[in-house]
Sequence to fold (268 residues):
Amino acid sequence: MSNDHRRRAGPAGTVRSNRWHVAARLVLISVGAAAMAWAASVAPTFWQQSRYDQLADRMVNGAVFDIETLRRLLPTAATVESSEWAATPAGLRSIAITRLAVAEEALGAGDREHVDSDLAALDSAITRSLSQSPADPFLWLGAFWSRNLQGGFGTDSLPLLRMSYALGPREGWIAIKRNRVASPLFPQLPPDLKEDTLQEFAALVASGIYEQAADILTGPGWPVRERLLERLESVDYRERQRFASVLAQGGYDVTVPGVEAIPQRPWR
Fold:
């Protein structure tokens, strides 16, 4: 009787086992299809974000792009920015840096048609990025720059500049941009930020960043050049001498403290 029972139970058990395997395969196929669909939907976002990361790195290293090239990259920024789960802090920062470059180029080109919207988009990008990475000195500087452009310089924007100095006091690539922004505002800055600006300029020269320091001195910092030059007294003589040589080659008759005047060579 037991043998007959096994014979009767065998086919039913096999059918149940087959059904279970079929169900399991259907689940696996569904999961696989969902995973493939997810990958297909997020891959473009991650690729776009990676593209912005690379672009931002090049900008940080001094690369310059024309405004049209930058504008062609912006339509995809909204896709990354609106993807809550895909927009990483690094990606948001890269987009903010890209938007900052766009606003700078638009302003420099006198593109009044787009400047206002560019600055509004920049503010949004910076706010979102700082909400994820509040210790970013470059974006605090960007916020300060943008605020002053839109509403004019006011003491209410000074905490933004102060945060930039506090979080990144000795980062060369930030210092170059920050000193360009702070120098023309020097007479209006409070004592602590005046001191930061002077120290930063001297640090640029001391670090061998002569050409950029010369551009600042003879450009936005020209009205306060005496104050900037005075601070170079604490810089090593060799650095001051090299800096003076760069100024002379540029045709500027400027006396660097402790350095004998270098004869001008007009035929250069």
User: Anything to note?
Assistant: Residues 202 and 232 are 5 Å apart (CA to CA). DSSP finds twelve helices and no strands in the chain. Residues 157-268 form one domain.
